[in-house]
C-alpha cells in the first residue's frame, strides 16, 4: 500500500466528497459526477487518482462504468496515523481549516 498515494488522494476535497458518496453504495461514474460543477473528464481524473491509490475500484457492467469504495485501502493510513496516538482523536476538519489559513494562496479545490 502506497501511503503517499493515499494521502495525496485524500488531500483533495472533491475526492473526499466522492469517497463519502461511495460510502452509501456503488455508483455509476455519471452519478458520481452529477453533484459536481465540473466536466465528466475532470471527475474521471479524480476517480483515476482514487483508483490508483486503491481507495476505489472500477468495473464495467455492460456499457456503464461503476465505482466501488475499497474501505480496506484506508487501513494502512489509519494504522500509520494511529501510531501517533498522542494526537488522538484526530480532527481533520480543524486540520484542513488550519491549512487554509496557513496556505491561503494554495487552494486545493483548484487541483
Describe this protein's structure.
The protein contains six helices and three strands; from the N terminus they run H-H-E-H-H-E-E-H-H. The chain is α+β, with helices and mostly antiparallel strands. The protein has a three-stranded antiparallel β-sheet. A hairpin with a 2-residue loop joins strand 2 (56-61) and strand 3 (64-69). The protein is globular and about 45 Å long.
Order of adjacent strands in the largest pleated sheet: 1-3-2
Indicate the mean pLDDT: 86
Q: How far is it from the N-terminal to the C-terminal residue, by CA?
A: 23 Å
Structural class: alpha+beta
**What is the H/E string?**
HHEHHEEHH
| Helix coverage percent | 40-55%
Give the oligomer, counting copies of the same chain as homo and different chains as hetero.
single chain
Residues in β-strands, percent:
5-15%
- How many strands appear in the DSSP assignment? 3
- Low-confidence stretches are none
Rg, rounded, reads 15 Å
The largest sheet is:
3 strands, antiparallel
Overall morphology: globular
Please give the count of helices.
Answer: 6
Amino acid at each position: 500500500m502506497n501511503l503517499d498515494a493515499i494521502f495525496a488522494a485524500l488531500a483533495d476535497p472533491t475526492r473526499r466528497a466522492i469517497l463519502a458518496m461511495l460510502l452509501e453504495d456503488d455508483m455509476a461514474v455519471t452519478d458520481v459526477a452529477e453533484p459536481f460543477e465540473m466536466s465528466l473528464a475532470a471527475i474521471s481524473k479524480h476517480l483515476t487518482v482514487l483508483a490508483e491509490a486503491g481507495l476505489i475500484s472500477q468495473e464495467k457492467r455492460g456499457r456503464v462504468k461503476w465505482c466501488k469504495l475499497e474501505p480496506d485501502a484506508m487501513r494502512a493510513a489509519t494504522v500509520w496515523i494511529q501510531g501517533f496516538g498522542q494526537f488522538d482523536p484526530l480532527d481533520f476538519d480543524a486540520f484542513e481549516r488550519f491549512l487554509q489559513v496557513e496556505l491561503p494562496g494554495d487552494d486545493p479545490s483548484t487541483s
